[in-house]
Write a structure and sequence with these properties.
The chain is mainly α and about 325 residues long. The chain is about 80% helix and about 0% strand.
């Protein structure tokens, strides 16, 4: 299947179409919305379901199978925020604090982009299915980029909250707690116990993802004005950065021994940007940073770009490398 066919297949996926419907709803000033409580429940479901699947896979995976992918994840989790920071300071002329805040978002990962990429790779796969332990890599990737970007700002003597508080915010945040908690539950529960909850956490996953992407489409639609006002450089960065990071992710993932589908999902992870864990940590550690820039770039530009075009592109790159 060509990259054009992959892109068309992705654009007609119900999850992507639901995201577009959310944007259209805002454009036509519809009263369509997902209540905040329901949105939090959908997010919690997705994170816990991802964690449960990853925990079950960890039990059946050998240390040798995991060593390479985990090392690759940690390496890119350290490199990506540094590169993002340097680009933003040198060419974007952002302040140290604002550049570090944006870099923290791009050094971390979007769990929803991961879920969409996993669904796409599983649907499009002609060979082995993506590795079941990929959710564990998702948890590994979420933390280092945030901490490294914040450490850069603090080392440059930026004023703000303590780095220790930011670490606590990331670790105790709902997204990390649900993801890691799900991994532990999935690993500890035996096969018979996991089968009891599969009707709730496996089969309905794709449908819940559609509902949550409808919510994110509405949120993204509400930020379109901010995207227009944010400047050409930030918009360009929010497209080019995931392209570069995702392409490198596909290459590194393939070198680490991941399958074509696994490398494609890994590329989507490294090419994504956080809009849940990172904003919370930045707000605590760098309260003077402009979160509007970071959220506009990550949620307003990078997320829809990856959802529509990035995911099939990363899959095409991984296929060519595999």
């Amino acid at each position: 299947m060509s990259s054009t066919d992959l892109a068309l297949a992705n654009l007609t996926h119900p999850a992507v179409l639901a995201f577009l419907l959310g944007i259209v709803a805002v454009a036509v000033r519809s009263d369509l919305h997902i209540p905040p409580g329901a949105a939090k429940l959908l997010s919690a479901y997705l994170l816990l379901a991802i964690g449960l699947k990853g925990g079950a896979a960890l039990v059946s995976s050998s240390p040798g199978e995991l060593a390479g992918p985990i090392a690759a994840t940690l390496a890119l989790g350290a490199v990506i925020p540094v590169v993002a920071y340097l680009v933003l300071v040198r060419w974007g002329k952002f302040s140290i604090v604002d550049a570090a805040g944006i870099a923290a978002h791009y050094g971390s990962v979007s769990a929803v982009t991961f879920a969409a990429a996993l669904t796409f790779a599983t649907t499009m796969a002609t060979g082995p299915a993506p590795e079941a332990f990929l959710p564990a890599l998702l948890a590994v990737l979420e933390i280092p980029g945030i901490l490294i970007a914040l450490a850069i700002a603090h080392r440059a003597k930026a004023e703000g909250g303590s780095l220790r508080s930011a670490v606590g915010e990331v670790m105790a945040g709902s997204s990390m707690l649900l993801l890691l908690g799900g991994i532990v539950i999935g690993a500890v529960a035996g096969p018979a116990n996991r089968e009891l909850v599969e009707p709730v956490f496996v089969a309905p996953f794709a449908g819940v993802l559609v509902l949550f992407l409808l919510h994110l489409g509405i949120v993204a639609g509400q930020r379109l004005r901010e995207v227009r006002d944010s400047g050409a450089f930030l918009v360009t960065f929010a497209i080019v950065m995931p392209l570069v990071a995702g392409s490198v992710g596909a290459l590194v993932g393939t070198a680490a021994g991941l399958s074509v589908g696994g490398a494609a999902v890994f590329a989507a992870m490294t090419g994504s940007a956080s809009y849940i864990a990172a904003p919370a940590a930045v707000q605590v550690s760098l309260p003077e940073a402009n979160l509007g820039h970071a959220l506009t770039a990550s949620l307003g530009v990078t997320f829809p770009f990856n959802l529509a075009l990035g995911i099939p592109l990363y899959h095409a790159i991984a296929t060519a490398l595999g």
